[in-house]
Amino acid sequence: MKKLAILLSVLFVFTSCSNQPVEFECVGNSLADIKLILQPNKAFKVEFQAFEIDEEKLNFTGEWTIKENFYELTFNQEKAPDLQALFDKNYDNGSFEVLDKRRVKFKTDSRELIIWGIPCERK
Prior knowledge:
The chain is of the alpha+beta class. The chain has one domain: Lipocalin (Beta Barrel). About 15% of the residues lie in helices and about 45% in strands. It has a 9-stranded antiparallel β-sheet with strand order 6-7-5-4-3-2-1-9-8.
């Protein structure tokens, strides 16, 4: 059983590194439109648009890596959001950890992330 779990983890990481982006998108809420896109070239983008605020869509970018079955996102310094607000521990379902002002990590097998208090499903 343990060997099967290890094999499935390796296969998941391998397919996560394929040429397809990994995407999380919030659905069915009245607060915000949020997307997290991990590109195969190790770049990522967070698209954020709050519905109640007349602001333009915010885009945050950076680079990602895989470390021990976790995606680790490093936001570009000049446009890094407040990660404590974006990945709020009050809404954490155990799938992410804010490492510092520019880095957050989450499990590679996550099917859902809570971003800005909103569930975002993996596509």
